[in-house]
Amino acid sequence: MKVKHIVYIILIIGLGTLVGYRILTNKSKADSAGKNGSGKETAGKGGSSSPLRVNGVVLKPQRFANSIAVSGSIEANEQVMIRSQVAGLVRGIYFQEGSKVSKGKVLLQIDNAELEAQLAQALTRQKLAAENTKRAELLVKKGGISQQEYDIVRADLETLQAQTQLIRAQLDKTTIRAPFDGTIGLRTISDGEYLSPTTVVAKLVNTNPVKLTFSIPEKYANLVKNNTTLSFTLSESEKKYTAVVYAMEPSIEATTRTLQLRARADNPNGELIPGAFATVELPLTVIEDALLVPTEAIVPIQNGKKVFVVENGQAKEVKVETSTRRDKDILVTTGLQAGDTVLTTGVMALKPQTPVKVTISKTQ
Length: 364
What we know:
With 364 residues, this protein is α+β, with helices and mostly antiparallel strands. Helices cover 28% and strands 40% of the residues. The chain has helices at residues 2-46, 113-142, 147-173, and strands spanning 52-58, 62-83, 88-93, 100-101, 106-110, 175-177, 182-184, 194-195, 200-217, 229-234, 240-248, 258-265, 277-294, 299-301, 304-311, 314-325, 329-334, 341-343, 356-360.
C-alpha cells in the first residue's frame, strides 16, 4: 500500500507541474503578442518604411536604326554551263580546271576539217561568181546582155556569199570561247571524245562581285529601296560584309507573303562562295531622336506594357507603347520623354508611390 501511495503522489506532482508549465507558456506568448501589436501600431501611426534601393537610367535621345534579320544565300554574279552548239570530236582543250579565264578565251576546239573544206569550196565558187558579175556588168552597159541576165548573175553571187557566211558561222561554233571573265570548274570531257550539244564541258562562274538573294515579310515591303546598304555574316564566321540592294521583285510571292530582293557585294578575295548561307541585317528606318529603354525595365500587363519612373522620390507607373526590340533594349514610341528616370531593378515588386532611392547607371 505504501508503494501505491507513493506512485499516486508522483503522478499528482507531475500533473501539477505540467499544468503550471502550460499556464506560464501561454502567458509569455500573450505578453509577446501584446508587445508586437503595440510596435505595429506605433509604426502605423508615426513611423515610415525606408526607401527601396533600385537602379535606373536617365533617358537620352539617340540614333536608332530599325532593322530586321533575315536569311539569304550567296549566288554567283554570272554562271553558265559550258556546252558545244555542234556535235563533233574534241580536238583541243585549252583551259586548266579551276583556273581563271578572261572573256573571249578559247576553251575548246571541235573538229572542223569538213567545214574548212566546204568553206574553201564556197570561196572558190564565190570568186568565180564575182568575176562573172563584173563581166556581166560591162556587157549590160554595152548592151551585150539584157538587164534580166545580169540580175541572174548577180543573184548567183549573192547566194554564194550567203553560203560562205553560213559556213563561217558553223565554223565559229566549233570554237568554244569564254562568254565572260570568271573561274572555270572541273571538266567532264577528254581530248578526242565525241561531244554532243547536250554534254556539259565545265561550269564557268564569275564571283566578283557576288549576288545576295533574300526575302522579307510583306509588311516591310514599302520600307526598302534600291541602293540601300545592308550588312550580312556567313554561318561559319562573325565577320561582317556589306552589300547594296540593286533589284527587287515587282510583286509579293502569294504563297509565302514575302518580297524577294537582291543585293550585290564585292568579293575581290573570293571569300564569299556561291551557295553559302548568309544572315542579313537589313536597315528599314533611321530615327535620330529615339528613346531606348533597357528590356528589364519593361513590365507586361494585361492591356500592354508599363514601366516605373521616379517622380518626387516615389515610383510612378507609366503605360508605354513599344516597337522594335534588340538584345539589350527596346524602342519606346509613346509614354516617355527625354530626361525621365526609368527604374530597371525591382520592377516586379514595385507599386505606385513606393519610396525609392535610385542609383543612376552610367550608360543607357
